[in-house]
Amino acid sequence: MKKFHQPGVKPYLITKSLNPENQETPIQFINNNIVDGNLFYRRNHFSYPHFTSSFYFLPIHGFVHTPRTFSLQEIYSLPSRTIKVVLECSGDKRDFFEPKAFGEQWEKGAISQGIWKGVSLRTLLQYTGVIDAAKELVFEGYDYGERPDSDQMVNFSRSLPIEKALEPDTIIAYEYNNQPIPFKHGFPLRLIVPGWYAMASVKWIKSITVIDKEFKGPYQTVDYVYYPNKEDDSGKFPVTTINVNSTIQYPLNRQLLTTGLYHIKGIAWTGKGSIDKVEISLDDGHTWETCQLTSTSEKYSWVSWNYQWEVLKKGEYTIKSKATDSHANVQPSKPFWNRKGYGYNAVDHIKVKVE
């Protein structure tokens, strides 16, 4: 069986920008279902925040019966919840849209996965209570800066509808892979919203405010919104649940190969349910065969898949992968184009040449 990478050589993050820092996971070289913190993709709107975590407190106020401020020690002492979650930037694969969409030109690596531990948000809310009129919870991060479309300084803030906030697996996390969350990924506390694109999982939580109306912050109503039309805002709707998707990890696009037996490898994931099936095409989508799922298909996490390909004939090949989830969602042949380039999930494809 021929390999597509050289053992013993370590991968690095793929830099997209440095200020703010945006770097991709080298997803083609991730060989297990847990991504080390140093290879977890980095997505920022602003420079990293400055605060002293030893004096860190989390206030919850607004439409609650009893406003309360929690210390880290109090949060650590509460019953914990541990979940394996894939976090995918909603702009993942933006570079592949046609026509092109403006924004960070992510390729396939704005996605990572690991094990998060924290306390269910609903557990914290049991201490404050929630007034019946409450509709949303607003999460404000410590990261702030100036938006390109405004001369005002703003914090990164997002809201969740009360129903999503109260789901048991919506957690305030303090550990990643059995270690404190790395600072660049939200230490000391990060919201984790399984099944939704990662803009919802606010880092460096500064405060939680319960409100009785829709939150109108720019990262809720301007960004992270699907705009189907290029010229106007008609038909817009919010970015929420992760679309069913797959990525071919090996071989690499435009790789030169020789004849022989190859181990084609990849991952597949979805925001609702789990992955039921991954198919592969070796002839540009004319015929499809079922891949072997090599890891357990779990809620919130990706599944690894592979296919043994014996190639005897020289020439150029277009390899495609297509995932189906337990809700019968299937990757489309073409993505849903939108002006800001969110939610790309078209059938993945690469080209290789056998010499």
Automatic annotation (TrEMBL):
GO terms for biological process: sulfur compound metabolic process. One of its GO terms (molecular function) is molybdopterin cofactor binding. Keywords: Metal-binding, Molybdenum, Oxidoreductase. It comes from the Bacteria. This is Molybdenum-dependent oxidoreductase-like protein. Its cofactor is Mo-molybdopterin. It comes from Neobacillus bataviensis. Residues 45-218 form the Oxidoreductase molybdopterin-binding domain. Residues 239-354 form the Moybdenum cofactor oxidoreductase dimerisation domain. Pfam families: Mo-co_dimer (PF03404), Oxidored_molyb (PF00174).
